[in-house]
Amino acid sequence: xxxGRKNRRxxxxxxxxxxxxxxxxxxxxxxxxxxxxxxSLSVLEKIWWPETFRVxxxxxxxxxxxxxxxxxRTYRILLQLASIGVILSAAAPIQWTPYDPILMxxxxxxxxxxxxxxxxxxxxxxAVWMVxxxxxxxxxxxxxxxxxxxxxxxxxxxxxxxxxxxxxxxxAIVIFAGxxxxxxxxxxxxxxDHPASWTRLKSYPAQLLLPIVLVLSLVMATGxxxxxxxxxxxxPYTVWKEAxxxxxxxxxxxxxIAPANSSKQSSxxxxxxxxxxxxxxxxxxxxxxxxxxxxxxxxxxxxxxSDYTGKGWEDSELEKNEKFMPYGVGDELPLGWDRxxxxxxEIHQEFKMARxxxxxxxxxxxxxxxxxSFNDSKDFSGSGGWGSSSMELRYENGxxxxxxxxxxxxxxxxxxxxxxAAQAVIPDPRLQSxxxxxPMDIPARVTQLGRDLTSAEPTDFGxxxxxxxxxxxxxxxxxxxxxxxxVSADFVDSFLFEIQEGYCDxxxxxxxxxxxSVDLPTRWVKGYASGSNRVPTPGGMRGxxxxxxxxxxxxxxxxxxxxxxxxxxxxxxxxxxxxxxGFAYPYPAAADDAAAATPTPAPSAAPAxxxxxxxxxxxxxxxxxxxxGGILLAAAAAAAAFVNRHLLAESWRxxxxxxxxxxxxxxxxxxxxxxxxxxxxxxKEDHETLREAVLxxxxxxxxxxxxxxxxxxxxxxxxxxxxxxxxxxxxxFAGKVNxxxxxxxxxx
Length: 748
Fold this sequence. Notes:
Layout: H1 3-17, H2 23-40, H3 50-67, H4 73-91, H5 107-117, H6 121-138, H7 142-162, H8 168-193, H9 195-202, H10 205-225, H11 236-243, E1 266-268, E2 281-283, E3 288-294, E4 300-305, E5 307-308, E6 313-314, H12 317-320, E7 344-353, E8 368-374, E9 383-387, E10 392-396, E11 405-413, H13 417-421, H14 429-434, H15 444-454, H16 460-474, H17 491-499, H18 504-517, E12 522-528, E13 532-536, E14 548-557, E15 561-569, E16 573-577, H19 623-643, H20 645-657, H21 662-679, H22 690-700, H23 705-720, H24 727-740
Parallel strand pairs: 1-2
Antiparallel strand pairs: 3-7, 3-14, 4-12, 5-6, 7-11, 8-11, 9-10, 12-15, 13-14, 15-16
């Protein structure tokens, strides 16, 4: 062995032997190791299932507690391994196969089946336990403690910076644990080197502990409660990227609201504060924003603006000076508009935020009637106000926090024959002028198009519907419109006559301008589209065929950020219109219906957010980024393929099914049935026909007799009738087979 390497190894051994050995320090180190590992594992939030986190946290917690027991290390390890088995049997979402000596081939086969059911929880639990045991034994000296803490912080910092996962709380925990650990190591070393002084020091616990508590409290409070300040000096990489006209983007999603005054050509989808300059393109961000439990499908309305500038939308002077009424939980919120002729339906909604974004409003179906709860309480905290004219429910709390949950009741107008015959006019001339305002330099071809589209319509509602239909059917939807075609300085004019493609901001702005060109009072609205209410069918298995059902809970993502328009009809108030291609506003049905009409949007909702850089040609990435990214992706893919090799094998089998004919699919599913029966102790002998085997199985498993007879009848119908078989028949047969798979395990 080279002399230098030998010396370094000896130094490491000496340092390990010189580690403090006080029992209290060893116990504290074991606990802090578990805390740091548990906090760092939060980076896998988007990868692991909640059940996996439950198992892992239990393994870490129980292992740390066992480390506190006054037992030999060998006994502690054996006890920890036994506890992992208990945790898996109690907390992992698996179904154990009971042993039956009559049906099972042997105890080894039974054990193998149950061990296979533990995948991947067993491997993950053992891996986490091994990491814990290694670091709890290794991190006993100052340098190693600092290195371990730094590694945890690096993992959290990188993940927090480049993913949508918020990890500041976990970072604070790791910092606090690291500081406590280093202080404890100092005192443990002091105890070992100066035992007499340590004995005297213990006689004054207040003088010993009070400075530690004060310093730690001051350090943590400084980090937790100081206001957020943007960096004065940017890091060199960001400066270099921006000098190239590029931007440093998140790897896998966005964290918050799109920044105001962004000058980048292509941003991410999300709810924006800045609407004064619309255009450009965006990239979809599918990270969840909130879930909404609602008895009717709706759009979740945020803010409205009425002043079209030719570039985008701003608040008019009347909107800026609007009086906002204070509100509380249970207060009825009055409307500033006449809706006396309208029939309405109530919509009850419960919002639960999925992230820590701060919004200026509380979202809800329009129009909001009352706030029913706030953070699961009847007490309202914060400030804000209800705008009876804008119908915005403002929320302010120093722009630091946003409610985690809140519940609303809304009253939505039914779009009936009365609305369709009503006049679109506001009696107040000042308001009528505000909501039909257009820039003085609006191109004449825009207003002429509005008149041409509506000239044959006798009613105002018909005019609005004609404009809506024209935009839906004549302009393709895209999140990356070709802005190189733009010549006109007016946003709507360039969309209608030059770019002729776009997303919701293009469509909604165009409809608002075209409607105003024929004196329909119109305003621009932004918020979120309904989101998805599809959930897996109960009883489905992870990794198995996807089966979905609709629920009353809607998952709303950043990609659902959306904009649309509202037009005022006298006696009925503001009626929403949806001009974006592929979307349909979920207008409520009659009050006695069980559910509202729910047209399904074709593409994901586009943002009401994205700002355009003047004549920007796009975003370029240095070639080395692709090389490094490709290597990392290849390594991650190889690791994922190895860990999920059984799942990949099952996916490959499902892929093979797609190439089978209907008859071949039925034969394949019959083979699945026979294999499942064999695992349950029912073997089809080589000399038996399927009928003979099924009849025998029906006697041995009487509780499956009806299902097995139905499967047999379908199989024989396909096999011997000579009639053509459709894919629908094959799917129906597969459904019957799926209904009995795994149920052969017990006689009856």
